[in-house]
Amino acid sequence: MTKGLKIAINMGGGDAPGLNAVLEAVVRSAYNRGWEVYGIKNSYEGLLDTSEIIRLSPEHVWHISSIGGTILGTTNKGNPFQMPLTNAVGEIEFRDVSDKVVDNFKRLRLDCLIAVGGDGSLQIAHDLFKKGVPVIGVPKTIDNDLAATIITFGFDTAVSIATEAIDRLHPTAKSHDRVMVVEVMGRHAGWIALNSGISGSADVILIPEIPFDMQKVCDHIMEGELRRQRYAIVVVAEGAAPEGGTTLDKGSGEAGRQDVVLGGIADYVAKEISRQTGKDSRSLVLGHLQRGGSPTTFDRLLSLRFGAAALRLVEKKKFGSMVALDPPDIKAIPLENVIGGIKRVPLDGDTLQTAREIGICFGD
What we know:
alpha/beta, Rossmann fold, 2 domains, seven-stranded mixed beta sheet, 10 helices, 34% helix
């Protein structure tokens, strides 16, 4: 067994239930090997300001696997290859400061970086690996749209929260004969909308993979009137779009932010349903509620497995790899085979077929 290694770990992108469980597994597994672990705060920004790096012992992470969020903090900004910096005249410029990140990593005599994140964060990790930083990736996204792994941690919790919210909307929608439109996360893929919509007995599910026709959505809702169902539940992913249309960007207004901030599709759908059917329609955006709270048992266990597996890859020096669930095992997948690939809902898959067969409309 390799002795005396110094392992660094950071977390990038949006928070997800299970991040602390990964951290607990990494620290405790490393400690049992006689290794040191250093937590990098606020993703890759902590490798620019090294005062943001802290040594972690088992006492820091004892029983944090049940706690949501991350004690290290995370961010979806701070790409060292495109770092937003203010120039002399107060304008935002994007500069490549990755050499400083690599220099700081080497100066601290770190032996490996465990990068926990989604596609964007793992792309950065892969780019750093190409510059000589030993990297192991851990997949994280509640959207479950990361290629090469059957599922990512955080997804099961997000679906559970969304399903509970849908369950709670049924009685109030029925009481008022309303159409309730629930917006869930899902920028490029409709996994959360599909799974929570089916589990929550939605009438309509709108996902990015299927451009929808509002007329067909409204026709389906009005058909419910013939069955004496005078209310309806519509679940829509934030990245869904009508036929011939585009996703809605509500904008963040944050200086230096490059990513599109999706939102507003539920409000659009609700207003269109009201206009075309005359039915009282309301919209609800679950937003960050899907990221919060304690992870489910499934997500805790998967996160702990991912964290422990990452240490095994370090031990085997399989750098440039990502841990991935390939039931019943955790396997190593080259990062180059992971990044840039979006895992979308298969239109011929069993889950979507089940939804159609039980009468759920997708607006197509």
